[in-house]
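seq:
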Amino acid sequence: MAHCPFDFVTDGKQHNICLVGGGGKTTVMYELAAAWSASGRKVLVLTSTHILQPADGSFAADAAAVHNLWQQGRYAVIGTLEPATGKLTAPPQDLYEALQLQADVILCEADGSRHLPCKVPAAHEPVLLPDCDMVLAVAGMDALGCSLAQACQRPQPAAELLGCSLDSVIDEQMLAALLLSEQGARKNVGARAYYIVLNKCDLITTAQQEEIRRLLVSAGMDEHRIWLRERGE
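struct:
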């Protein structure tokens, strides 16, 4: 987190942030939540799809439990427990509405990828919160060198978007295209601020890191809105 370059991390403003894509959304979400809560901010974590119920005691079943965690300097995770899977789905709307204005930061995992490093969203995805002001798209660099069929969730629409086959090997240009496309990671972002997390950069060479950053910046991304994140940061 100390290496996160994004301007919103230390601006002291309220933010409602949705995370989309693949390759480490949950890890990045909880890393941001821990850092903000450690600095004294009231952080609310949730999903609009599915996430595992945390085992660290950060799950809060009601507003009182949320406030108790905030008073301890911890983030609070809210959601509806799905008995069949043990996962959390979206929280009750009345609980979310009661807390959203009290939280300094809201973090929502708004997309699923079945642990694959990249994806193209289905028609019903992503499920962005209506009041979110920014979107973080995450992609795992372990996608590079793998075929679309191996490393991309929903590889068929990805192949159609990129104009290639399912056996095509993902390179920097293809991954950048998925991150920049409004049919890909940028779907439904609209006027919201858009940031990209290139995750697991320790798995690729410096030259590969610079090439994908160059492709993103040359297509109009602000270089300060790109995080080349290594595992364990």
